[in-house]
Design a protein that fits this description.
The chain is mainly beta and 252 residues long. The chain is 13% helix and 42% strand. The longest helix has 17 residues. It is rod-shaped and about 100 Å long.
Length: 252
């Protein structure tokens, strides 16, 4: 095969003659595969022997390169570099001799996608694992009874009495008033020994969770405190807990 190109030694490219491969490919007079002698990557790379004598960027607005080559059939010059840059991939080859080829290269965005995915994974590890996923107890129902509610900023909390006389089968209801736009998470602490005896799943607004205190405290008189953790429904951001102290419970 005759040589299809000529190396031109010149430090200054004549921009009216020098074009990128993408421009050359898109010209109507020179078809992509016919005049450019373009071959797909797998077609060349499966050959036993071939030699890459330069690299041609699909886009090269500054027309920079180590040398320029001229295809006689196009009478146009192409800036060619001798070394393949990082983060570029080969998309095809132009045959310029019997076994010589110019590799057509373009930027590979795969590495940037991988870096982005790694950053997202890192952000998830740092912050995402702290986001609570709401778990709602199956026993939650509509609000049955509640004492007068308490207000704390924009959140309404259910009121609790300071003294309860309960039977073994009686329930104390953990409610979330319908005015709220937060989840409630209840915990009950036996204040006599400072032991947490109960922790609920998330209670949505306008719902109530029955708790049988006999199963937690047994018979007799106990002092408890009820702590309510609150979480934004959309973001699961937590707010300052609301605590009811010094609740006396007698169970017969």
């Amino acid at each position: 095969m005759t040589k299809l190109y000529e190396n031109i030694s010149s430090d200054v490219f004549e921009k009216q003659k020098t074009i990128t491969y993408k421009q050359y490919r898109n010209e109507n007079r020179y078809k992509y595969k016919e005049k450019a002698h373009f071959f797909k990557t797998h077609t060349i790379e499966k050959k036993e022997s071939y030699q890459v004598v330069g690299y041609l960027k699909t886009e090269n607005k500054k027309m920079t390169g180590d040398r320029i080559i001229l295809f006689p059939d196009s009478k146009r010059e192409f800036p060619v570099i001798n070394k393949k840059p990082k983060f570029y991939q080969t998309i095809g080859y132009i045959q310029v001799g019997k076994t010589e080829y110019i590799a057509v290269i373009r930027k590979s965005y795969l590495i940037f996608i991988l870096i982005l995915l790694l950053l997202l994974m890192l952000l998830w590890i740092l912050f995402g694992k702290h986001i609570k996923t709401p778990v709602i107890d199956d026993s939650i129902g509509d609000i049955i009874n509640s004492s007068e509610p308490d207000m704390n900023g924009t959140i309404t909390f259910p009121g609790f009495d300071s003294v309860y006389d309960l039977g073994k089968d009686d329930y104390l209801y953990m409610t979330n008033p319908k005015e709220n736009d937060v989840y409630f998470e209840y915990s009950i602490v036996n204040a006599d020994n400072n032991t947490e005896v109960y922790k609920s799943d998330m209670v949505p607004p306008d719902k109530s969770l029955p708790v049988k205190l006999y199963e937690l405290l047994g018979s007799g008189t106990s002092n408890i405190k009820i702590c309510i953790n609150t979480y934004d429904i959309d973001t699961m951001q937590s707010y300052t807990p609301f605590i009811y102290n010094n609740i006396k419970v007698s169970i017969q």
